[in-house]
């Protein structure tokens, strides 16, 4: 089945160059230049993956607003920021809003395509699991890799795809320390250590919205993180 990518980019020439490259790889591509256009289309039908610029026409944070709306519509839709803005503040803001990845426009096309393909592989790997029992239970946590869902104390935790994979990786062997590199490998992302830390902080915050006493993700300084069942 052909994957549908939506590209939100206000510079027409750049937008068409990316769109042509994605189509050459066999993807179906829809393009949008502003927030209202994109939001209207996404409310009608979600694509399989979205690439977002941050500044859109006169709206300097239009991409952030779209990301926020997309996360309201879907917890697991893959979202990648593709932008010229390379400050740590912008990167952290994008990830906190629920993006799975953050790339700057100086990234090469093969690199961008590899990151897109990695996100799609993660989805397919989860969906095509052949195990009879795809649920993992660890204390008060239950995660289901077929439905891409996590529950803490019988309440749903709204994790993004990247966040789900990270929790999945930690919970597979409770008490075992996973380095940032191992978490990146298991989540099929290739980012700096600070970005992994931002994801972990966001995961903790989501669990604590359900249970303010949540403390199962332990930071092992200089080594990584581990899941403790208490």
What does this structure look like?
The protein is α/β, with parallel strands linked by helices. It folds into two domains: 4-127, Response regulator (Rossmann fold), CATH 3.40.50; 135-227, Orthogonal Bundle (Arc Repressor Mutant, subunit A), CATH 1.10.10.10. 44% of the residues lie in helices and 20% in strands. Strands 2-1-3-4-5 form a five-stranded parallel beta sheet, sandwiched between helices. A four-stranded antiparallel beta sheet has the order 6-7-8-9, with helices on one face. Strand 6 (135-138) and strand 7 (141-144) form a beta hairpin. It is globular, with a radius of gyration of 18 Å. The model has no long low-confidence stretch (mean pLDDT 88).
Main CATH class of the largest domain: Alpha Beta
Question: What class, by secondary structure content?
Answer: alpha/beta
Spatial extent as radius of gyration: 18 Å
Terminal Cα separation, in Å?
Answer: 44 Å
Strand order of the largest sheet: 2-1-3-4-5
Overall mean pLDDT: 88
Beta content? 15-25%
Uncertain segments: none
| General shape | globular
Tally of structural domains: 2
- DSSP, total strands: 11
CATH architectural arrangement of the largest domain? 3-Layer(aba) Sandwich
Q: Superfamily at the CATH H level of the largest domain? A: Response regulator
Query: What is the succession of H and E elements?
Result: EHEHEHEHEHEEEEHHHEE
Task: Specify the number of helices.
Answer: 8
Helix percent reads: 40-55%
The CATH topology annotation of the largest domain reads as: Rossmann fold
Described by strand count, sense and barrel closure, the largest sheet is: 5 strands, parallel
């Amino acid at each position: 089945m052909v994957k549908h990518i939506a590209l939100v980019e206000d510079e027409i020439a750049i937008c068409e160059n990316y769109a042509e490259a994605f189509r050459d790889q066999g993807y179906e591509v829809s393009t949008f230049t502003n927030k209202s256009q994109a939001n209207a289309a996404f409310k009608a039908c979600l694509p399989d993956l979205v690439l977002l610029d941050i500044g859109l026409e006169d709206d300097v944070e239009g991409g952030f607003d779209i990301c926020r709306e997309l996360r309201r519509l879907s917890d697991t839709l893959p979202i990648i920021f593709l932008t010229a803005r390379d400050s740590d503040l912008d990167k952290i803001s994008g990830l906190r809003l629920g993006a799975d990845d953050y790339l700057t426009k100086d990234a090469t096309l093969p690199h961008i395509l590899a990151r897109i393909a990695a996100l799609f592989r993660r989805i397919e790997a989860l969906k095509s699991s052949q195990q009879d029992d795809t649920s993992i239970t660890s204390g008060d946590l239950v995660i289901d890799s077929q439905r891409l869902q996590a529950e803490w104390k019988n309440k749903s935790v709204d994790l993004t795809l990247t966040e789900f994979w990270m929790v999945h990786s930690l919970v597979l062997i409770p008490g075992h320390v996973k380095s940032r590199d191992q978490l990146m490998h298991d989540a099929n992302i290739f980012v700096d250590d600070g970005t992994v830390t931002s994801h972990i902080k966001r995961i903790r915050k989501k669990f604590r919205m359900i249970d303010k006493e949540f403390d199962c993700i332990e930071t092992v300084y200089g080594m990584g993180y581990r899941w403790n069942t208490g």
